[in-house]
Every structure is written in C-alpha cells, then in structure tokens.
Design goal:
The chain has about 260 residues and is an alpha/beta fold. Helices cover about 45% and strands about 20% of the residues. The strands form two sheets. The protein has a six-stranded mixed beta sheet. Strands 5-6 form a two-stranded antiparallel ribbon. It starts with 12 loop residues before the first strand and ends with a strand. The N terminus is likely disordered.
C-alpha cells in the first residue's frame, strides 16, 4: 500500500495499492486470486443468502456465489471484464474502509441493465460531537490499461449517478426489505437509516471508485513504486480539478487505486 491519504479532508479518502512484482515486471497474482475467491459470497450474494447458505453446509456459500456469477456471465459477455473491478471496489469498501455492503447490482443480476452504481455501502463514523453519522456510498469502478482513461471513466459514471440521484435512491429504497437482510440488520436499518421505509434525509451520500490500471513496462525498474506513486498523485489532482468544476463539489469521495 502507498500511503496517499489527506487527513485534512475528513470524509474523503484516497488509497493506492500495487501488487508485488518479479524483476521482469510480471505481477504476483496468486494471493489476490485467493483473496477474491474467499470473499465471493459477500460480493455475489445478499447478506441474508450468504449466511443461510453457510449455515446449511461449509463452503456452500462459495459454490452458490460461483454458480450465480456463472449464470450472469452466460447472459452478459462483458461481465467478466466488469466483475473484477466491481468486486475489488466492494472489498476495498468493506475491508479497508469498514463500510459493509447493503447490496450491489450483481446479487440482483442487474449487470448490463443500465444501473450505473455497482454497489451501495453503509459507512458509519463519529462526528465531532461524538454522535454517530452515516453515509450511503454509491460505488463505481474503472479498469483500464491507461490511468487517465480509467479516471475519466469513473468520473463520467459518477456524473451520471449525480444527475440521476433520485432514481438511484428510489432503487435503494425498494431493496431495503427482509428479503435481503436478517432481522437484526433490518432492525439496525430501521433505527438509524430508514424513515417510513425510505432513506432518511439525515443520511449523507458519498461516492466511491476503484481504479485499476497497468503501468507501462518501462516503469518496472528499480524505483518503479515511486514513479507509480507520482502518477497516482497526478491522477488524484486531475480528478480533484474535475470535481471542483462539476455539480459534485460538495460530495465526499473514497478513491482506491490498484
């Protein structure tokens, strides 16, 4: 992990990661594949479904998640390319930020159905007065060979989310039910997040992006990590400038680079 974080901007968060590489510039992917495999249920299934499957038989939730993803892939030829970015965005929010998933479009089989946000997560944090505050985080992802293209892609998707904000929240409201959550989770949502079965106006909204790109081979030299860090810092500045000129200047952002 590169420590690109600005603590002077509460609520905003930027982190960058790089896989370990061999001397010839080939990246290690073994550990990443194991990490993705073990987290398939939390990504591909609803919270309730994953828990039910695991109670029935050990590892059955992984098998159920694999089957669900295979079924989606058979009807959507672009899904495999999108799946990696969406799963990594999900894992960064859950395991790095500590914002559990409420739901994502994969669990409902909505890939390729026009929904821009790949997932919705809930982030809880403490305000200065000591009270808990909540953010609904709308996630997107961009996987490209070129870093600038990846940044531009996720920014465009965020702009689409912003312009369709009411439609997105109508969709979120429709999924807040006992079919997708355990009784305990629904109690928590009802107490803190929902107001008459719709999202409370007191809940803030943030956006998240997972941005993945492959550095040029010439960077895979002795000091390649410093070069990549400078690239990402430049990309972050570029993203910041675009936000300032947009209608999203008041939004909080959680950005992850790989």
């Amino acid at each position: 992990q590169f420590g690109i974080v600005d603590p002077s901007l509460p609520g905003n968060h930027v982190s960058a990661y790089c896989l370990k590489s061999h001397n010839d510039g080939i990246f290690h992917t073994g550990q990443l594949k194991k990490y993705l495999s073990s987290n398939l249920p939390s990504f591909a299934l609803s919270i309730k479904k994953a828990e039910e499957e695991e109670r029935e038989l050990p590892f059955s939730s992984i098998y159920a998640a694999e089957k669900h993803l295979d079924d989606i892939a058979q009807s959507n030829e672009d899904f495999e390319a999108e799946c990696f970015g969406e799963m990594m965005e999900h894992l960064m929010l859950e395991n790095v930020l500590g914002a559990p998933k409420l739901f994502n479009r994969v669990q409902f089989g909505l890939v390729g159905k026009g929904r821009i946000s790949s997932s919705v997560h809930l982030f809880t944090f403490h305000e200065d007065d000591g009270n808990d505050a909540f953010q609904l985080i709308l996630g997107v992802s961009g996987v490209k060979n070129n870093l600038c293209e990846a940044v531009d892609k996720v920014f465009y998707m965020m702009e689409q989310l912003e312009s369709n904000h009411s439609d997105v929240f109508d969709f979120v409201d429709s999924k807040m039910n006992t079919e997708n959550y355990t009784e305990e989770q629904m109690t928590m949502l009802s107490n803190y997040i929902l107001d008459n079965n719709t999202i409370s106006s007191g809940v803030g909204t943030a956006m998240s992006a997972f941005i993945c790109y492959t550095p040029y081979s010439k960077l895979m030299e002795q000091n390649y990590q410093e070069t990549i860090k400078r690239e990402i810092e430049q990309a972050t500045s570029h993203f910041d400038e675009m936000v300032k000129k947009s209608q999203m200047s008041c939004r909080f952002f959680h950005i992850y680079f790989l």
